[in-house]
Amino acid sequence: MPEKDDVAADRFYAEVPAAHQTFGLKGSGAYDWGMANRLARIFQPADGRTVMLAIDHGYFQGPVRGLERVDLNIVPLLAQVDALMLTRGMLRTSIPQAMSNPVVLRVSAGSSILKELSQEAIAVSIEDAIRLNAAAMAVQVYVGGEFEHQSIQNLTKLVDAGLQYGIPVLAVTAVGREMVRDARYFRLACRICAELGAQFVKTYFVDQGFSTVAASCPVPLIVAGGKKVEERDALIMVERALQEGAAGVDMGRNVFQSAKPVAMLDALNNIVHHGWSAERAWEWLTSRPEEQPAVPSA
Ligand code: R5P
Q1: Is residue 6 part of a domain?
Q2: Ligand 1 center to 235 CA (angstroms)
Q3: Residues 6+ away with beta carbon under 8 Å from 223
Q4: CA-CA distance, 143 to 149, in Å (whole number)?
Q5: What range does the domain containing 255 cover?
């Protein structure tokens, strides 16, 4: 059947070349649409950067300070984050179903702080990740760790599962207690994660040579915050990481253990997305009052 409408020829813009749709995120040129679309929910397409909030610490550490009550401590922060990284247990029990933030689901587990941390397995099925509408799946990779082989296998299996359904994988470079945290180590660990197919990598900033870690990793690097430090120091670290090639942060304790978590996230957003210097963001932060979680009356 020919089409019913007699469409005017000028509506086809025959002289205009078809748009070449690209998503400028590092390394994403060959991704399928679903994979790229999920990444575009995590990394703001305007600048290719993200402010992620990591609250998955409980999967091996239990209720760390600041995460005693995710419903009270964390839910009020969601408006200021580009993506939320957490376990399926906390997602199902403590996060509103109407949340619009993309979820980066922690899918590796297997040890507690009482045992050897590197002994992990894939602890969530791909079906459950899909059921939970995960925008990405996160796996710990212990390069140089006792169970290095097992954790690398976890990564490669997840990448295969993720590719099948268009779900990106975040590889988290874990550092064992006895490992040196220097650029040489992180170049090795981050590059291995990218070579094996991770679509983005979470790592730690190092004072010397972080730009070589970022340059040699062909996918976006986001930095963890690490242990709680002075807000000013955390903000300076973020500014330097961005200057040296990071695509954002996936910060936990330096946000939810701050006396001003909402203002801390505002400060981070201003550095990551609006070009503020760390010094300006810190001065602004110091002018903000301390914050208390809103506790509903019984
Ligand atoms: C790594 O073990 C987990 O993903 C942590 O939740 C995350 O790295 C911690 O973030 P932060 O170091 O900023 O507290």
Answers
A1: no
A2: 16
A3: 202, 203, 204, 205, 237, 238, 241, 246, 248, 249, 250, 251
A4: 8
A5: 29-286
Q: Indicate the SS3 state at residue 241.
A: helix
| Mutation to probe ligand 1, out of 172, 173, 229 (largest number of atoms < 8 A from CB) | 172
| Mean pLDDT score across all residues of the chain | 94
The answer on pLDDT for 63 being more than 70 is yes
> Which residue in the list 202, 227, 228, 260 is annotated as catalytic?
202
Q: Are strands 83-86 and 50-54 parallel, antiparallel or unpaired?
A: parallel
Q: How many angstroms is it from 5 CA to the middle of ligand 1?
A: 58
Question: For the whole model, what pTM was predicted?
Answer: 0.95
pLDDT of residue 297: 64
CATH code (residue 58): 3.20.20.70
Which ligand 1 atom sits closest to the C-alpha of 138? Answer: 4
Give the number of domains in the chain: 1
4 has catalytic annotation: no
Distance CA 60, CA 64 (A): 10
Residue 292 lies in a domain: no
Interval 70-82: pLDDT, tens: 999 999 999 999 9
Residue 264 has a CB neighbour count (10 Å cut-off) of 26
> What is the maximal distance between C-alpha atoms in the chain?
73
Ligand 1 interacting residues, C-beta cut-off 6 A: 54, 56-57, 172, 224-226, 251-254
